[in-house]
Amino acid sequence: MATDAPPSPIAGQARRLYTEALVKGLPTLVGQVVTGSRYLLDKPAEYATAQRRRDLVQGLHKHARGWLQGMADGLRHVLDQGVSASHPGDLPPAGSAPGADAATRRGSTLALVDDDTIEREILTSRLALAIMDRASWEFTDLRSRIAMLERRQEVDTHDMLRAHVLARVALDAWRNAALTPQDWREAQPALHEEFALLVEEAYHETNRWLIEQGVLPEVDLRPFIRRTRDGAGAAPGADAPAGAASAWHGDSAAQPSPTTSSGSAALRPGHDASTRP
C-alpha cells in the first residue's frame, strides 16, 4: 500500500495548472460536440438511428451548458477536495453478472443499480483508454515528475492527473445534465477524439511548466504540434476549422493513435524518434 507523501507545493501548482488548462478548453470541446452532433443529422441512417441522433441534438441544445458547467465544477471539486473519482464498491462482486437473479444480487432494485454502475464503468473506461492512447507519452513524463516531487514510486491510483478521473467527471456531469447514456454512445467517437486532444495539450503544458521550474529537465519535453480536427498540424493558438467534426464522419484523423505492445504511443507526427527515452 502506498504511503502518504509529503505535500509538494510545486506538484500542487502543477495539478492546478492542469485543471485550469482542462477547464479553459472545455467550451471549445463542448462546442465541437454540439456542432458535430448536427452533422449526424445529414447522414443517411435507419429510422431508429436517425431518431437517436435527433434526440442527441435536442438534448445537447437544451443541456450542453449544464454539462459544461458540471464538468468545470467537478474538476475543481476534485482538485480542491481530493475526492476519488472511482468507487470500487459500486461494482458487483466478482463472478456476478448484470442479469443475475435477484436473490443473488440482494434484490431486483439493487440489480438495476448495479447494471447502471457497470454501464458507467464501461463508458468511462473506454474514454480513459482513448485519452491515453493519444496522450500516454506526455502522461508518462508528467507522472515521473510528480512522483519525484512527492518522493514516491508512483502517483496514486485515483490521482486527478489520471485519465479515468476526468472520464468519470465528464460522464457524471453528462448524466447530471439530463443527457442519457444512449446520447453518450451516439456521440462517443467525437467525445473520445475531443477529450484526447484536450488532455494531451493539458499534459504538455503542465510538463512545460514543470521543466521551467527545473523539475527533471533531463526528461525531454516532447515536440508538440497542436492538431486541427482534420489532422493537419497547426501552430499553437491556431483555430480549428469551422467544420472540424472529423470524428463524426469516421475520418482517419479521428482514430486513436496506434500503440506499441508496451502501451506507449507509437511514433507519430510531433513525436520525433530522437526524443524517446
Structural commentary:
It is a single chain. The protein has 277 residues and is an all-alpha fold. The protein has six helices and two strands; from the N terminus they run αααααββα. A two-stranded antiparallel sheet has the order 1-2. α1 (9-40) runs antiparallel to α5.
Quick overview of this protein structure:
The protein is mostly helical.
Poorly predicted ranges (pLDDT <50, ≥5 residues)?
84-109, 232-245, 250-277
In terms of DSSP E residues, the strand content is: under 5%
Number of strands: 2
For the biggest sheet, the summary is: 2 strands, antiparallel
> Which strand order do you get reading across the main beta sheet?
1-2
Q: Residue-averaged pLDDT, rounded? A: 77
* Count of separate DSSP helical elements: 6
Q: What gross morphology would you assign?
A: elongated
Cα distance spanning the termini:
28 Å
Order of helices and strands: HHHHHEEH
Radius of gyration: 20 Å
Q: Classify the secondary structure makeup into a structural class.
A: mainly alpha
- Specify the helix fraction band: 55-70%
Index terms:
single chain, 277 residues, mainly alpha, 1% strand
